[in-house]
Amino acid sequence: MNSLERRTAKLNKESGSGQGKVRLRTMRRRVLVRILLTGSSVLLLAVLAFAMTAAWFTNVSRSSDLTFTVESWGFDEDRITVPDGPVSIAPGRSGVIPLRVNNSGSSSRVRLDVGVARGEDMPEKLRQRLYFCVDASRTVSGETVDRLYITDRENERQIYYLGPGAVLDIAEDYQTDQPIRWVWVYDLLGYYFLGTPGSPAEYLRPIEYGYDDAVFDPDTLELLAVGEQGRTEFLAELFARDGYAGSTVTPVTVGGKTYYKIQADENDQGVWAYLLTKDEILAGFEDDAHAAEWGPVRVNVHIIAYDMPAAQTAVADAAALTEALAAPEGGAVTLAEDVELAAPAAVNAGSTLVIDLDGHNLTYTGGGAAFTVPEGGSLTLLNGQLDLGGADTAVSSGGGDVTLSGVSMTNCATAVLLKDDETAGDSILRITDCTLTSEQSTVWVYANASTAADTRVYITDSTLVSTDFAALLTNGTNGGTEMVVQGSTLNGCWAGLYQPQADAYTVLRGSTVTGYTGAAVKGGTLVIENSVVAGTGAAQDPVPGGSGWTDTGDGVYVEANYNWSARVELRGEGTQVSSAYGYAVQLFGVEGKGPGRIMVYNGTYSGARGGAVSNGVGVFEIHGGSITAGSGVTDKRGDLEGGGAGG
């Protein structure tokens, strides 16, 4: 008896006999096959509405299972990239479509309409199962849906807005905006499609319902009811829930199959729904087991970009700049000369202010914060130098939106201060291609423990330098911060990074972090991937205390003495952690606190006192990498086939 026969026998055994109806039970299968989709596997077609004469750029990369193409028209190919790296797809799994669009250095806002289509070479059975969606509530045909399925049709694309100097960065483990996800549906029950009955041209979204409660006709094997609802009542509710309210539930039979008209013209061309019969659902179980035979696969992502330039106000002196900054509605300002600003500038709530320094120097001679951004306000600083003249802060935000691109800042105690603990809003900070130098904390983040959203910080291709404290730090009072540091340098005096905050989540990717203690963590999660972290200070033994951290001189130091967890994960063959006088990585836990947790998976580690050490309170495990395990550390490399110190 093969697997399909066994499933059918089990289903028949569970069938109801009183009314001659068959009840479908949930059947989950372990699918061992995998199809590899390379992260650079999407076709990108970028068309700029304002530049239709540019030449095409084409880059084709191939694998045994998938053909990938990147195309751009009127959009600099360097501004649109897809990160490298394999993505494994299989029945029942999902993931993001990785994408990076760089608008840094531009003073214009850009709208991106992103559509997704299956390649023509994709097998029909996979076309019915592979969908693309955004998990966000939208209003469709007067109904609120929790998931928007993305196609390449005009009203079914995801829309992104990139402000001046901003970067759209979407990867599996972090996103600067809502990602488009691919979803491989198994236990396929039905689908909506574009075309005519019997001739689907494009599959739009799957049909999902609680098939534990599904009842099928024993003769036709078609769906009769779900739970206490008959077919007509159930389908009316289903179509409305999926954004097709008012669609007919009258069956149309074509070629022996039953279809339902959703939105079609007099020629029956349009959107239809099809519900699989019981035997088709059972056959789908076997189809999933042969998914590896469905390659090669192509996924096409089309991006249409529209430039949205704002009217620019050129200023050449302090009086003109002050007047422009005071405009209630905000606006776009471009410096024509070096300018001195004597008084603080506050962005109005609900307004957007863009200042393009255009290569000039802006010198601030006032006190407090040079720029203040309230909740609902937006500030963008571009392309130039900002001398703070010894002021406390360059930019202070309480729930606002701040973008820095191509800017250097000097002579301040703090370059950017996010004070979300004083507001209900959550700030968003984007730093791209900048060099920020401060005396105290270069970027200092206070969150507000809001459950609605997180304070978000994205630092890309930038350098942060603190001459007397930490380059990047969060407060430890309120949790709720998400930070991504990509291709950047954090150079601090006492720490490159200090994270005491509960529920904080920080990713360091392809970056360099240095300080007396390289990275000190007392709360939340820090993921270090293919990055260099170095401690340069004299070694000191940990001392349990309250706020702050012990200056151990370690590369990575976790001090778990708060009432919340502190976790560090170290990944990537390119990760290098060192200490000139201390340990490469150290965990110091306190009984009844934390707990602290360190997981080493890859990389190279060296320290004058040793590679890894713990006082035995908390969990410190080594799963791979070149590192010496000291006391209190569990070396699990021997548990892995082919493991070892260099694994």
What would the keywords be for this entry?
six-stranded mixed β-sheet, 32-stranded parallel β-sheet, disordered N terminus, Pectate Lyase C-like, mainly beta, 7% helix, 47% strand, disordered C terminus, 647 residues
Helix-strand layout with pairing:
Layout: H1 3-13, E1 22-23, E2 35-38, E3 42-48, E4 56-62, E5 67-73, E6 80-81, E7 86-89, E8 94-96, E9 99-102, E10 109-118, H2 124-127, E11 130-134, E12 138-140, E13 143-145, E14 148-149, E15 158-162, E16 167-170, E17 181-184, E18 190-196, E19 199-206, E20 214-216, E21 223-226, E22 229-230, H3 231-241, E23 251-254, E24 257-264, E25 270-275, H4 278-289, E26 299-308, E27 312-315, H5 318-325, E28 330-335, E29 339-341, E30 345-346, E31 352-356, E32 361-364, E33 369-373, E34 378-397, E35 401-419, E36 428-432, E37 435-438, E38 443-446, E39 455-460, E40 463-466, E41 470-474, E42 481-486, E43 489-491, E44 495-499, E45 505-509, E46 512-515, E47 517-521, E48 524-529, E49 532-535, E50 556-560, E51 566-571, E52 576-579, E53 583-589, E54 596-600, E55 604-607, E56 610-614, E57 619-622, E58 634-635
Parallel strand pairs: 3-5, 3-26, 27-28, 28-31, 29-32, 30-33, 31-34, 32-34, 33-34, 34-35, 35-36, 35-37, 35-38, 36-39, 37-40, 38-41, 39-42, 40-43, 41-44, 42-45, 43-46, 44-47, 45-48, 46-49, 47-50, 48-51, 49-52, 50-53, 51-54, 52-55, 53-56, 54-57, 57-58
Antiparallel strand pairs: 1-20, 2-7, 4-5, 6-9, 8-17, 9-16, 10-15, 10-26, 11-14, 11-17, 12-13, 18-19, 18-25, 20-21, 21-22, 23-24, 24-25
Helix pairs in contact: 1-4
